[in-house]
Amino acid sequence: MDANRIALVTGAGTGIGKAAAIALGEAGFTVLLTGRRAEPLDAVAAAMGGRGHAITADVADPASVAALFEAVQQRFGRLDVLFNNAGGWSPATPIEDIPLADWQHVVNVNLTGVFLCIQHAMRLMKAQDPKGGRIINNGSISAHAPRPLTGSYTATKHAVTGLTKQVALEGRAHNIACGQIDIGNAETDMTAKMKSGVLQPNGQIMVEPTFDAAHAGRAVAHMASLPLDANILTMTIMATSAPFIGRG
User: Fold this and answer.
1) Which intervals of the chain form a coiled coil (predicted)?
2) How distant, in Å, are the alpha carbons of 41, 56, 178 from that of 70?
3) Are the beta carbons of 25 and 52 closer than 8 angstroms?
4) Other CB atoms within 10 A of residue 181 CB
């Protein structure tokens, strides 16, 4: 692979973002890692050797996103892959009791942040030479089936699916591919509680199986490594015994 292919990963300091950044580096990409905290980003970049470059940014802040993409253009001159991974959640709450501030926080990170990054990426990919690139959005199995008491998270992940399809449609004329990876129970800080048990739709608390996040990272790298005349529109990777199929 051309070592000058540039990938940007949001939320790259931990979890799935970290795994994807490492896998993309191993696949031959130069990877720009971004997130709000410098320390974990710097640690991942150091582990990647010359393949990783860290820059802090907050995807929920329009000015921060604009500065991030300006830095990409100034430093590398192009962007071949964007992995929209940064995300957040709020405490488990009945939908009628979700505080507006919690709702807006999740929407700002999970949906508006993805939207802002997509806007800047598409502008850059349409203008660069050669034109085109790939956008991969981190959905969730919650983009298909909700968990109890997760209204804001579920709503945003369903919305990300709509954005994925819209970008896939609008990108056709500009050699921009767009796909979504839906991940179920990759072992990260976010899923640590699954080992002690999480609420199920029938009201029971059940321990759920997880899988090594490195597999999700390599799945992202596989999607990213395809030629632009091929696209994985949706991929689901999950713990084999996770209670997703038949949830509810």
Assistant:
1) none
2) 19, 13, 22
3) yes
4) 24
Run means of pLDDT, 10 residues per run, the chain, 248 residues: 82 97 98 98 96 97 98 97 96 96 97 98 97 98 93 98 98 98 89 82 90 97 98 97 80
The neighbour count for residue 95, using CB atoms within 10 Å, is 13
Has 153 been annotated as catalytic?
yes
pLDDT attached to residue 3:
54
Q: Is residue 103 classed exposed, middle or buried when 0-12, 13-18 and 19+ CB atoms within 10 A define those classes? A: middle
HSE at residue 93, side-chain half, CA atoms within 13 A, is 14
- Which of the following is catalytic: 29, 69, 153, 244? 153
CATH number of 6-238: 3.40.50.720
H-helix segments, the chain: 15-26, 38-47, 62-76, 100-107, 113-127, 151-171, 213-225
Structure tokens at 183: 């991940």
How far apart CA 22 and CA 12 sit, in angstroms, is 9
> Contact at 8 Å (CB) between 156 and 106?
yes
Q: What are 135's strand-pairing partners?
A: 82, 178
Question: Cα dihedral sign for 224, 225, 230, 233?
Answer: negative
In order of 4, 15, 71, 97, 235, the CA distances from 100 in angstroms are 44, 27, 33, 9, 32
Residue 217 has a pLDDT of 98
Nearest Cα to 198, choosing from 143, 147, 140?
147
Which of 232, 209, 215, 226 has its CA nearest to residue 19?
215
How far apart CA 106 and CA 160 sit, in angstroms, is 12
